[in-house]
Specification:
12 helices; globular; 7-stranded parallel β-sheet; 2 domains; Rossmann fold; 14 strands; Dihydrodipicolinate Reductase, domain 2; 7-stranded mixed β-sheet; 352 residues; alpha/beta
């Protein structure tokens, strides 16, 4: 019998935590050993999410006071709110330095401490770990992820935009100063905490932009696009909230370099992602829908020429809870632990 990895999930009572449990239960090499949820501590997972009633899972416990060394965890997923993970991860790795960590918050995504302080309003509280963390966009940083102890899982919006744009910037196929990302997310992207702005009657039958001109994901996009282009890149990015449960759809407008066509962009992306299990390029001119990826770890990308010469439109979709969060986290964990990258992630999209 193959020895299973002992897994901890911090923040198991949130949407991304529950998605980690859903996927982890069917992972052939995971043993879900520790589940934390401070407000729900002491409850069974089935009391919080009844869909888990048929399964034997550990009770939810508070993260405070956990003896990390005694737990002997091989890997921990942190699905905690932004700005709370830094000290938790510091304590964990001080006590159990051999444990691997995949953090799903934004706490370790930015490599520049000054950029972090600018966008998040306070100094980073774990600078040594910030410099150690590997940005976990799996298809771009696979080699680095394999060797990492701490991986910063990318944001859902950023994954949808970076996967199509990074290869094009690296190949200098598009103008880096003329990128517009018009992105929409389902309601689960706002988290599970009760908020007036996310009540059903507040969002149903409506559609709105938010974080206009100052959304925190902009720092993440600046960092990765600039690295890919080899120069400073500042893209226009506007997020919108859709009254659906799951899904990200990013409509991306780009200006072509003089020697490139929209078909060339599709060819570059097809070459980049040939053989990738979780990135699928549609035929030229075809456009993906969010329902084509719901519940799966798949990204689908379509490319078409704009009616204006020298312009192209790219549409990228993913499930914000899977490839945009928990699925990509498991994909990274598989690499870190030496498991097949697709383990536990083979589910096909649920349709309709």
């Amino acid at each position: 019998m193959v020895k299973k990895a002992r897994i901890g999930i911090l923040g198991a009572s949130g949407y991304t935590g529950a998605e980690l449990v859903r996927l982890g239960l069917r992972h052939p090499q995971f043993e879900l050993a520790v589940l934390t949820a401070d407000r729900k501590a002491g409850q069974a997972m089935a009391d919080v999410f009844p869909q888990f009633a048929p399964f034997s899972l550990p009770k939810l416990v508070s993260v405070d006071g956990l003896d990390w060394r005694a737990q002997a965890l091989d890997l921990v997923f942190c699905a905690l709110p932004h700005a709370t993970t830094q000290l938790v991860v510091s304590d964990l790795l001080d006590a159990a330095p051999a444990t691997r960590v995949v953090d799903l918050s934004a706490d370790f995504r930015l490599s520049d401490p000054a950029a972090y302080e600018q966008w998040y309003g306070h100094p980073h509280q774990a600078l040594a770990l910030q410099s150690e963390a590997v940005y976990g966009l799996t298809e771009i940083y696979r080699k680095e992820v394999k060797a990492a102890r701490l991986v910063a899982n990318p944001g859902c919006y950023t994954s949808a935009a970076e996967l199509p744009l990074i290869p094009l910037l690296k190949r200098k196929a598009i103008e880096p100063d003329a990128i517009i990302i018009d992105a929409k997310s389902g309601m689960t992207g706002a988290g599970r905490s009760a908020k007036e702005a996310t009540l059903f009657s507040e969002v149903s039958e409506g559609f709105n932009a938010y974080g206009v001109a100052h959304h925190r994901h902009m720092a993440e996009l600046d960092q990765e696009f600039s690295k890919a282009a080899g120069q400073d890149v500042i893209a226009t990015f506007t997020p919108h909230l859709l009254p659906i449960n799951r899904g990200i759809l990013a409509t991306i407008y780009v200006k072509l370099r003089k020697d490139k066509t929209a078909r060339d962009l599709r060819t570059i992306l097809a070459e980049q992602y040939d053989g990738e299990p979780f990135v699928h390029m549609l035929r030229y001119g075809d456009m993906p829908h969010t329902r084509h990826v719901r519940g799966s770890n798949m990204v689908m990308i379509g490319v078409v020429a704009d009616r204006r010469d020298g312009q192209a439109i790219i549409v990228s979709v993913l499930d914000n809870l899977v490839k945009g969060a928990s699925g990509q986290a498991i994909q990274n964990a598989n690499l870190m632990l030496g498991f097949p990258e697709t383990a536990g992630l083979e589910q096909i999209a649920l349709f309709p």
